[in-house]
Specification:
- This protein folds into 4 domains: 243 residues, no CATH class; 65 residues, 2-Layer Sandwich (GMP Synthetase, Chain A, domain 3); 71 residues, K homology (KH) domain (GMP Synthetase, Chain A, domain 3, 2-Layer Sandwich), CATH 3.30.300.20; 86 residues, GMP Synthetase, Chain A, domain 3 (2-Layer Sandwich), CATH 3.30.300.
- Helix content is 57%, strand content 15%.
- The radius of gyration is 48 Å and the shape is elongated.
- The protein starts with 11 loop residues before the first helix and ends in a 22-residue tail after the last strand.
- Helix 3 packs across helix 8, helix 7 packs antiparallel against helix 8 and helix 9 packs antiparallel against helix 10.
- The chain has 15 helices and 11 strands.
- By secondary structure, the protein is an alpha/beta fold.
């Protein structure tokens, strides 16, 4: 084989040097296995951290260049010894890369899949073209002494080692489809580089069997062609089959990119019609013959079904297929020093209503907290509107050591009504708690003092009213005394009496009580009509000495 302007014959001495160089690189050795393991570790972690620079570093030290060239040269020249030695090195190197990659993939704290990882799981026809160019460049560098000897390692390792590391990582993670894609990329690159190198070797006379310079060139070239296709026919067939799969993948990726571009442009135009909204991200999947699109939109208010329906119709028209659109509204507001950007009249109204609601709840919280200051340990934790729309109802949640009674709720509600109107209804929900520090329970002294004060007041009320009843309403008695509130004083007295007090007796009883506990109190008297009968104790019957009862 001849190329214009290129020397196709190389001297026997140079031919022997090439054989020896390739044979040395193809021979399995301890250093080869160590460098293979180390380069795989570098490549695997470079893929995990998604660093192209680290992956390139692994390519520079990977020793896979030698065995691949050894296989190509062994087949091209018919040197079986070289072929089997190179094949053995290559197989062991592949196994090392897969095992080391899988071991790293099984380690804990594995990072998410990045672009450097993903790009090697979806091989296309472009990857095959890169592999062919790498094989040609690497083999030519071996033939031509003027080319840097570092080029073969770079050219070959670029196309071989990262797919092997990716295959091990994805297999360890259980992503078998991705592992299959990475292995397909490796196989395609392996055969492409092998065939490209063999072509270069044949062009420069490494395939020639007949060493007689007097042999006719036509016969020799015909023999070279026959030998080449005989020895590399299987590799070419495998490469063509893989190229067909890669072509299909390339077409699929191209179609998906066109669909993604159409989706982005169509939805961007539709979202622009809504003030303050902008498209953030889109993705799609093919499900049962239908295109399922999820669009994330930054917007000041959620999209309604009518807006999504219009956008879905636009997508179906643009793509020419059935589309199921889901819009994920992510509520956001754009702000500048002057205030909100892209606001509408509806937005301003909603903002004003929200501001009024916050001010209303803040003022109601202040009123409730002022009343709760008189109760040791009581704390307002929440206050919110409750009930149906239009009802001015509030629910306050209070933490306290004892329930908040109706008297306190009534006092708070009275002040709130003077502030917000008489239609306001207040409900207080008490969450019973006990507060303690490292030394003691807090507020115990205040609560004990309040209990003692209530009990003392109740005792004084009972004694005063009992005394007044004995003097004025015979057979009447005090059934129960309850101090409902201390501030202000509200007292409930339940009487058991044979008759109802007259109009003059009730004020007189209150005046008698005021003389004991003071004038500032509110008294409520409940009556239960009844009588009291006092029975003298019955004398015990006497007994005779004989044990008989004496009537």
């Amino acid at each position: 084989m001849n190329l214009p302007g290129m020397q196709s014959e190389i001297k026997p001495k140079r031919r022997r040097e090439i054989y020896e160089d390739v044979a040395e690189r193809s021979r399995p050795s301890g250093s080869y296995y160590v460098m293979m393991a180390l380069s795989t570790i570098i490549a695997a972690y470079g893929l995990l951290i998604n660093s192209a620079a680290v992956v390139v570093g692994a390519m520079l030290v990977a020793p896979l260049m030698g065995p691949i060239f050894g296989i190509a040269l062994g087949l091209a020249s018919g040197n079986r010894r070289l072929f089997w030695a190179a094949l053995q090195s290559e197989v062991i190197g592949i196994l090392i890369a897969l095992v080391v990659g899988a071991a790293i993939g099984l380690a804990p704290l594995r990072l998410p899949i990045g672009s450097e990882w993903l790009v090697r799981t979806q091989p296309t026809l472009y990857d095959l073209a890169i592999a062919l160019a790498s094989g040609l460049a690497g083999a030519y560098a071996l033939i031509d002494e003027r080319v840097s000897p570092a080029l073969p390692g770079v050219a070959i390792s670029v196309a071989v080692l990262p797919p092997l590391a990716t295959c091990g990582l994805t297999a360890a993670a259980g992503h078998w489809h991705m592992a299959g894609g990475a292995m397909m990329l490796f196989i395609a690159n392996f055969f492409a580089i092998q065939i490209a190198a063999a072509v270069v070797f044949s062009i420069f006379g490494m395939l020639r069997v007949d060493r007689d310079p007097r042999a006719r060139r036509e016969e020799t070239e015909g023999l070279e062609f026959i030998q080449f296709f005989k020895r590399f026919g299987l590799s070419i067939v495998v490469l063509l089959i893989i190229a067909a799969f890669m072509t299909r993948t390339l077409i699929s990726l191209t179609v998906d990119r066109q669909i993604a571009s159409t989706i982005d442009s169509t939805l961007t135009s539709a979202v622009r019609t809504i003030t303050g909204a902008r498209l953030s991200e889109t993705n799609f999947t093919h499900e049962n013959g239908q295109l399922r699109v999820i669009a994330r939109v930054l917007t000041p208010r959620a999209f309604d079904t009518q807006q999504v329906g219009v956008m879905e119709d636009d997508l179906q028209e643009a793509l020419g297929q059935d589309v199921n659109l889901i819009v994920r509204s992510m509520i956001s507001r754009d702000m500048s020093r002057q205030g909100t950007v892209f606001t509408t009249e509806e937005d301003d109204q909603l903002a004003a209503e929200e501001r009024q609601r916050r001010e209303f709840l803040q003022r109601a919280s202040q009123i409730a907290s002022k009343h709760l200051e008189a109760i040791p340990g009581a704390e307002l934790t929440d206050i919110h509107r409750s009930g149906a729309d239009g009802d001015l109802s509030l629910t306050a949640v209070v933490r306290a050591a004892e329930p908040i009674g109706p008297d306190t709720v009534s006092a708070i509600q009275k002040d709130m009504r003077s502030e917000f109107g008489n239609s306001l209804q207040l409900t207080v929900r008490t969450v019973l708690t006990r507060v303690a520090d490292s030394d003691q329970f807090l507020f115990e002294d205040q609560q004990r003092r309040l209990r003692d004060e209530r009990e003392a007041l109740a005792s004084a009320v009972r004694t005063s009213i009992d005394s007044w009843l004995d003097a004025n309403v015979k057979e009447a008695l005090v059934d129960e005394v309850e101090v409902e509130s201390l501030q202000p004083r509200r007292i409930l007295v339940a009487l058991l009496t044979p008759r109802v007090l007259t109009a003059d007796e009730a004020p007189a009883m209150r005046d008698a009580l005021a003389a004991v506990i003071g004038p500032r109190f509110e008294l409520t008297v409940q009556y239960e009509l009844g009588g009291r009968v006092t029975l003298a104790p019955e004398a015990p019957a006497s007994q005779t000495p004989g044990g008989e009862t004496e009537d």
